[in-house]
Protein: ADP-ribosylation factor-like protein 2-binding protein
Amino acid sequence: MTEIDCNFYISGQLGKGIELHEFDISHYCVESSERYFAEIVGCIENTVISEDFLKIQSEFLDTYYKEFVEDEENRLEYMEIFQKYLSTVEKYIEEQLVKSVPGFDIRTFQEELQKNPKKLDGEIYDMLSTFWDFTNFKQMFLEFKRMKEGNSVDFSKDILVTKYTFHCEEKPFIQ
Structure:
């Protein structure tokens, strides 16, 4: 990856020596106080799309989804499953973050997200909230159960995701 000063790029001038094949400006366009948070989010995103994580999570869901039923009552076995979930899925993410982000503390990160959930929204927030919000945890299992039993809409055949590669010919800048 090539570092790019965001302001310099936005002005349309890339300067000499910068390769245009791939670049990541996500950590260079934020205030220094937000870089740490952006680094954590980036690591989480990389972790949750990894084959290892997907395998761990899907095996866990496959093992326990039949235990959950669509009612308002929370059974005692749900709490046992929740504790196992924290000790496998959450622990895996935390281990990856500790390896990648110096000084990372998951409880501090969770507290910050709970205080300001708009800092991180969408699927990543929804998945992370299953670690501290039991209702979201239960809902995740119920949605997985509906999908496994064919009781949900399957959009997987209707969506195509492709990689976009940015190519640019090097041209001299005229000032």
In short: The chain is about 55% helix and 0% strand.
